[in-house]
Amino acid sequence: MSKQKCFSPAEIVEQAKEFDGTKVDLAKSLGIAYSTFQRISKQEASAELSAEKLGKSAKKRKTLKTSPYDDLEKILMGWFKEVRAAKIPLNGYIIKEKALEIAERLKLQGFSASNGWIDRFKKRNNSCFKSIWRIR
């Protein structure tokens, strides 16, 4: 029995761009069935978008899971970037409070800024809450 192969969105895009032969030959060179390759090639456009959105972590992540609260996350990420540019240290509690404030403003029902949500938010946006050190 052969091992199951798992390709990241970035790997799918790379392989498709590099290979000039037929689709059957490409599937054989990857060691996957042609039907699997067909499914992957249908997903190529979304794989390119995923690879662009994931950036540097594209080779690590196999899927791109989006949040059901995209509007909230876009606003929160904009605020997050502004605060980080001002070199203000952030922690999970501050992010949680700001997320709840934005959710209230957007009138989102059922949103709770749990620790799990904060962890997934950090993973989706490749961000961390490390303190910023200043030399005096």
From TrEMBL:
Location(s), subcellular: Nucleus
All copies of the HTH CENPB-type domain together span 60-131
What the entry lists under InterPro entries is as follows: CenT-Element_Derived, Homeodomain-like_sf, HTH_CenpB_DNA-bd_dom
Single GO molecular-function term? DNA binding
User: What domain of life does the native source organism fall in?
Assistant: Eukaryota
Chief localization class? nucleus
Question: Mind telling me which PANTHER family this protein's record contains?
Answer: MAJOR CENTROMERE AUTOANTIGEN B (PTHR19303:SF69), TRANSPOSON (PTHR19303)
Name assigned to this protein: Major centromere autoantigen B
Species per Swiss-Prot/TrEMBL record: Araneus ventricosus
The upper taxonomy is: Eukaryota, Metazoa, Ecdysozoa, Arthropoda, Chelicerata
